[in-house]
Every structure is written in structure tokens, then in C-alpha cells.
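Slide 14.
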Amino acid sequence: MTAPSTVPEAGRSRWRDVLAGGTVALVLIPQSMACAELAGLPAHRGLLAGALPPLVASLLTSSPYLQTGPVAVTSLLTFGALSSMAVPGSDEYVVLACLLALVVGVVRLALGLLKAGSITYLMSQPVLRGFTAAAALVIVAGQVPPLLGLDAGGRGAVEGAARALSSPGRWDAGALSLGLLTLGVILGGQRFLPRFPAVLLAVVGGTLLSAGYGWGGPRVGSAEVEFLFSLDLPWSRLPSLFVSGALIAFVGFAEVASVAQYYAEQHRVPWDPDREFLSQGAANLASGLSGGFPVGGSLSRTSLAVLADARTRLAGGVAGATVLLFLPFAGLLSSLPRGVLAAIIIASVLRLLRPGPLLYLWKVARLQAAVGVATGILTLALAPHVEYAVMGGIALSLAVHLWREQKVKVTARELDGVLVLKPMGVIWFGSAPLLRQALVGELARHRSVRNVLVDLSAVGRIDVSGALVLREVVLGGAAAGLDVSFCFIPPHAERILGSVCADIKRSQERTAAALLGGPAGAGPGAAGSAAGG
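Slide 15: predicted structure.
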């Protein structure tokens, strides 16, 4: 009796995915062209990056909602990687972008096959928040000149925006008014009609106004699209692209992971970072081979797919197929004003400009917030080579982490003639020398005590170096006539201490708990009997 009802339900689900994919495609077409311009490429190259990559990604992705294609941050990283190697927009630049997409694809595929999806967590939240906010500011600054109908003149984004804003006499009134109108339509649509592709309305209206009345400033120009499907690429330039490609593969995936994980939690569906590395790697290979540039996962289009009631990854495939079918008609967009594309880019990154996340970090962890602010400052200072800012932010984050992990505190107190030493922190090769110094210092300050109890309940982790230091301190104390033993060994430290310190006496848990004023068995791990019998 259940079969007749499940078939129509499956059919309705497929139709929902088809409609959702078509809705996403209506936004993907103009966004792809805008991202291509942001990456320093002819606008129509974005359509190539928005056709096959979503199709290929939909075959491998683990997320039923993630929408793949050109995205603003990855496009900015692409421009930073290539702008010093060739003239943006030139034939050489185009083929380098294809080669860069192949590098990104190979790196992501390798990480997926090696099941190294967790590597993305090396980019801490402060670094990610500082970088994305500053990168969004750079992106907006870069779109100010075209929004005003001006040419940036090859200057940096911030400098170009400042020069454009300081010369109101050169502004193109038509381009500015059309750009502001586009922003109003997109933002208003997002606010009041989130399921309606307001971007499409802005593009159609801008194209008609430009074609019919010559209004709107500089235009996109030729939009004829041809697939390359060629391996005739500048392979000799591959070594100079590898580092940038690896960084884009790594940094760009942070957005993919955050989008996929957010909607997986919201809709209680599983997702696999290793599968996403594979899907994004394959998508970038498809983009490079078909004449595109590096792609990633889009937050705005994924949100639209969810609002349009997408249920499976079919929606992403339909979006790519729709763009593919549109390619023969891309010439219709040749009259599209560049100011409209600039407004589309600005609208897509405005949500990344929120200072709230960094302000929250400042309230709860000022040192981590400082890492985020420093990453943002580096991003602004080094633009368009923002990949170096990411490297600097990661290095700074790791340095802060190592500095904090190196700090080990030891408390000491005397109870009934017993000196209780309690180290707190992570005991590893970086902090072990400081721990030894602190323990020996406490033993020197309590020279009259002969019984010493080392309480390990507050130790987070112990490596071999830390265990060896504990052993040396205990044996050194024994040689000086002290009776030293361990208590409350955490379960995670039992194995390493059982191996390295097998001959070191451990206090009975009940005796140690009574001495320290707690109930028997109160320690976080069993103290056990004397090691070795």
C-alpha cells in the first residue's frame, strides 16, 4: 500500500530540485560573469566556470544543498595569484587561469583521496573571520571604480577606490545610478522576496536600458563563449603556480566547509569533508579543462537553493546544465553595463563585512581577536596578493597557539607533611623544560618535606618528552631522599606514563583522595597500584 504514495513523493522531490536548480541558475549566470571580472578575466569566461563545474560537483558532493561555481573570495585569490604574471584579460592570463584551476583541482583531489579533510581546520576561526571581512572590503573597493563608470587604472583596490571617490567630476551619472538601482533591487529582493532571483531582474533591466538608451557607462562587450577543452597550456609555468594553487585549494575550501556544515546541522543531514574535497577538486578540473578558472562553494546560491526547497544534489546539476544550455545565447548579454556586475559583486559580499564576529572574539579572547585583526590588516596591506596574508595569519595563529601551549603552571601546597604538586596545562616537548624548572623550583622551596605527591588531574596531554621529564624529576628526587609518587593520572596519559614511567610509584587513589579532601575515586582517571607490581 505504500508504493503508490512513495513514487509520487519521489517525483515531487525531483521536480522541487529541478525548479530549485533553475532558480539558482538564474542567479549563477550573472554572478559568474561578475566573478570573472573580479578575477581579471573577460566576463563571459565566468559562464564556462559556471556550467560544467556545478554539473561535475553534483555527481560527487556529499551535501544535497551545496552550490558550486565562481565565488568572490576565490576570484580575488585568483587575481592575486595571476595579476603579477600576466596582463589581466589577456590570452596569456586566460590560459594561466585555466592552469591554476587544474592545480587547485589536483590538490583538492589529492587531499580528498588521502582523507585529509580535517586539514582545513588549521585555518582558525580568528584567521578566517579576519581574512573574509578584509577580503570583502578589498572586493568592494575594487568594484567602486566600475560602479562609478571609471577604470581602476591597474592600481590596488583600495587606492583605486580612493582615487575614484576623490574625483566626482569624472563619475558617469548613468553608470552610478544604474549601479545603485541594481544594488537596491538585489538587496530589496533578498529582504522581501528571498526566493525571487532579483539578480536576474537587475541584469535584464540593466541590459535593456543599456541597449535601448545607451545608458549605464562601459559595457561587458563581446560575450561569445567557446569551450577550449584543450591541454595546450603553459605547463612550464606550473611550478610558479603551485603555491598559489595550493593556497586557493586550502583557503577557498574553508568557505565550502562552513557552508556545507551549516546546512548539514540545520537540516540534520550528514556531510563528509573528504567527499567535498573530491567534488570540489573534480569541479576545478572541469573548469580548467573547459576554459574557466578556480571555483568553490557559494553561500548565497546555496542559501537560495535551500529557500527554493532543494532536497538533493540534483539541484546543483540542474543549475550547471541550465548555464550550459544558455551558452549559445550569451551574446545577448554583451550590452550589460559593467556597473551592474560591480553591484552584483558588492551585494554578494556585503554579508561578509559584519564586524560582529571579531567584536565577539574581542570580548571572549582578546589575543585571538588580535590574530584576526592582524590577518585583516595584512589582507588590506598586501592586496591583491591576499594569499600571503592568509599564510601570515596562519603562521601568527600557530605561533600564538604554541606560545600558550608552552605555558605550564605548577601549584604547590603542603598537607599533613606531604608536598602536593599539581601541574596544569599540556606537557609536550615545547613545555617540558619549563615544567621541569617549575617542579625543581618547588622542591627547592620545600626542603623540609620528604613525601611528594604529583597530582596529574589537570594535565591536558602528555607526550614522550613530557613523560621523560616527569620521570627524571621523580628519580632525581628519589636520589635526594624524597618519596615521590603520582596520583589521578588521566586516562589519556595512562599508556605513555605506563610505558615511560613503569618503575615510578603511584599513590593509591583512595589514599590520595583522602589526603586532598575529596571522595575516593574522585580523580579523573584511576591512579592504580604501583606500576610494575
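Speaker note: The radius of gyration is 30 Å.
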